[in-house]
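> run fold AAA family ATPase
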Amino acid sequence: MIVWLNGTHGAGKTTTSELVQKLIPDSRVFDAEKVGETLMDITPALPATDNFQHWPPWRPLAVETARRVLDYAGGTLVVPMTVLVEEYWREISSGLAQHGIPVRHFVLHADQDTLRRRIAGDTVLGPNSPFRLKYLEPYTEAARTWLHGEAEVVDTTHLTPAQAAQQIAEAVKS
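> ok
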């Protein structure tokens, strides 16, 4: 099984995924961003883009990597990865379904003020990361048009990461 944690930057995906992994027996965290980083290392470079998800190889490679890890190790993969383009989510979810891999899709949501406050206090990418800030509006649009209808929404505005992880783990186990 895959537990996919979606949502924009600052919603708490990375922190929550590590905590969810500890609550679900025989689970591992798979950061599909590493697949994108591999593509970014190709030389000469692939065509310029502002997001590796726009490269057509990323989506099937993320699916194939997840499938291979599950075939090898079994259990559950917890995948903290923002996917805001509906077509890309459909490609990923249908690719996983073709391999018979069930997906529990969660969106970690927080209101705009909370997201901006978290981004402002980010110690990893730095305060007010332009990269993270530029995804707030696309997230809002995706949430309004398709994303919240495709997933189980966990509002993290007033939750600690531990509380969000507990809620997700309980939903997965039920």
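The chain has eight helices and five strands.
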